Fold these 2 entries.
Entry 1:
Amino acid sequence: MKNFNIILGLVLLGLTSLSVQSAEIRDYHKEVIGKDCKACHDNGIKQFPSDQSCLQCHDVDELAKKTARSEEDKWQNPHNNLHYGKDVPCQECHSEHKTKEPLCSNCHTFKFDKHKG
Amino acid sequence: MSNIDLLGRRKFIAGLGIAAGAAMVAPAMAVSEKADGVKWDKEVEIVIIGSGFAGLAAAIEATKHGAKDVHIFEKMSYFGGNSAINGGLFAAPGTPMQKKEGVEDSVDRMVNDQLLSGRGIADEALLRHVASHAVEALQMTLDAGAEYHPYLQQLGGHSVARTYQTSVSCGAGITQPLYKECKRIGVNTHNRSKFEGFLVGNKGEVVGVKMRQNYHFGEEQPGKVLNIRAKLGVIMATGGFAQNVNLRMAQDPTLTAEVGCTNAPGATGEGMFEMFRLGAIPVHLAHIQSGPWASPDEGGFGYVSNYSIFNFPHSVAINRLTGKRFMNEIADRKIRADAELACRDEQGNPLPPILITSFKDSKAHPNTEKVIKYNVGWKFDTVEALAEHFNVPLKALKAQIAEYNGYVNSGVDKQFGKDMTLAKNKIIEAPFTVVRLWPKVHYCQGGVKVNTKAEVTDSLTDKSIPGLYAAGEVCGGIHGVSRLGSCSIPECMVMGMTAARSIMKV
């Protein structure tokens, strides 16, 4: 019985580790949201959040100002770009539980040094 | 009205579909269904699938003619498709700028250029229809706020300068104004909405569509599927399939995944497949065009494509092994792409040719500064430095440039028969700007058969499938073997407008 409890404990610990790993969260979001999955998952846990979810806390106009570039390169602003203006949803370049490259990288060699994929 | 049971022919069509996309895997292909007993989640007047030039133009035109409830569905998270990333080059005969510049042009002349490029199998009726209404489409863009460079361009295969280009040298210079106009006039737009199939009535007519919500391209996830009734009609404006490697290889085995592609990632052809299931006729699927202006030094369409398109008329393309020209730099795309692909080193490996332009001429286009800045183009003060950088035989190169400059002065290219009109007074001299060229998969001439009312033809009855319309690159046969540059925007927009007019019975 004692051995069984030890084994059970190890299994549960393993499951917990897997569980934590499968929903890894950015440090900067962990600080603000903690473990409240529903803060972002407005479509339920099994689906991607809606594109409006990020906008509960982030403002695209503010972001466009922060990432503005010189007049010569103004349309390389990832948050207000030539092809789509301010209309690219956050999830297209930013992923919470995985990493993503900027959409622009499909065709361009722009530098996005502060991009957090 | 067709009384044929369209869906009963699934096995026949599936055989064709399997052959065309044999290795196709997830996501599962859409499946159309009978609409009997369907519970509608939503009822609208017009459903438009796809948000590029064709879809946006259709929405605006339908609303202008009285439609009250128009909906655009886009499977990607952002709107515009390939239209938002293309070169923004719009050909039309009889335009205000042509009149101002004294350029003689006509519907006949434009159609003849296209028939020649189509190598005898283009659809003259459709080409004529598009050319006849191209100025109307151009006007729609101007009315919506699009702006253009103050000069015409003459692209490969065109006999005269007839091409406008947006002032941002990109299709977004048109899609953004059109998209904003859609919003302004009350068109409903839905992103992340994936078309999952048609809903077909008792008479074989299209009465609605199935749309999956919260779709994330390339991911598997269980968004809900809605049954949406289209009371007036469905317009398929889903674009081409250049990004579908399996389908393009089924047509041309050399178009492997290693061959670069200029398209947006969503150009995979599912909408076209579903129309085939309904009975649409496949036309010219094997004619897949590569862009001869593309660069091996950047992804997709990038900056070099527009740079090259602008500069080809007054530049020389040089085979780096020989130091010689190897083609007419403004021939049509197929001639040039094939000629470029033939540029090889001694071992037969690809040796991308170079395009040499005088800086005094290339600097007129905004992309010149960008190609240099992002290291996909180069500037040289001497021909010696240029030849050394690209390992080109110097003596042969000098001789070729001198020979070509003779043609510039005389107005006659005895080497390749290039039309020297736009090269007048533009001799090749230092300083030079240079880019490397290597073709990328760009445009699918093939698609579903349509008529000049944008109606989709049924393969068994040779009549139109009621309730179903198609416009833009998803249609086939119009351009024949090779589409001329800048002829896609007028086609997409005119046929989008035509679909709207057919539905609204204008």
Entry 2:
Amino acid sequence: MPTTNRSASTALTPEAIAESIAADETVASEPVALYALGLGDDALVLAHRLGEWITHAPELEEDVALGNIGLDLLGHARSLLTYAGSAWGTSEDDLAYFRGESEFRNRQLFEQPNGDFAHTIARQLFASVYFDGLYRALRRSTDPTLAAIAAKATKEVDYHLDHSVQWLLRLGLGTEESHRRMQRGLDAMWPFVGELFRAETGLPEGGVAHVPLDVTDGGTLGGVVVDLEPLRSAFDEIVPRLITDAGLTVPTVPFARGGGREGRHTEALGPMLAEMQVLARAHPGVTW
Amino acid sequence: MTSPGDSGTREIWPLWEVFLRPSRGLSHVHAGSLHAPDSTMAVRNARDLYTRRGEGVSIWVVPASAITASDPDAKGEFFESPEGKEYRHAVYYTASEAVPHL
């Protein structure tokens, strides 16, 4: 156990999950692995997009903030992919670097290009509301690994949400130009909101019960995965209010067809994966 | 004459000074400075930049423009050592024998 100057924490690390898998103590069933893979891909793809901002943010401080959020998400992705891999005997790196576009299960919002700063904030706002509700509920999953990953992630996504809201307000209530751009960002990302709350169709039948979302922490344990219906209602309550508080208009553009969980993606994902995977594919099997 | 990184008129994020009180500390200590559009964002940026290793429990941010500093060129007179002013220091008392642990 390496010593750090952090106070001792019981937060689950990807390394600890990998150790537990190696010791045959943790093995995800196929449906749970597919579920974890979807959540892991959401976090991985968004983390990569945020990484593209490094050294390009409007200010040094914002470079650090976006980098922090990206690092948090990459941490979630590593844990989730490591756990998913236990079902198939694959590592987090195998899953990240050696799957093609149609094998990626992330929802389409997360692969959307960064656009300008307002586009990125709009994407992050929707993503953070989704993650926040999801991980809060997932803490009560009957799957102990998923519950532990969610417990660690909850604190982090709370902060991501706060960051997005602060910038939504500043851009929305800032100058005429920042207001116009923030509205355009919201309009551009809105079509991908619908897909976030669609049931997980890619999961095999049976074997997965749903966790009913109870906003109080005394909810009854119902199963492994989070029921997305209540998350949708929470989103519909929170986000329009945030948008109008920032002096902006709730978009009315129709939702896109979606299909990320089944491996159907927008044209943005392919080039992103090509860049992300090029080195690993040029030197398969090396350690780094 | 601009300093490196100074973008002149484009610079609309003022400078803030950051003071942190560590979890076991008694007082806030100057940790560094940062740019932020307003005080709310300054506190959040300070959390990002100066408390990544859990070292702080309390953050103060102050606009750099609100701080008045002593004149660095006036060091001599301003901070003149009190040499030769023994009457200012209680150095000539002798300890009473009846008070051993003074």
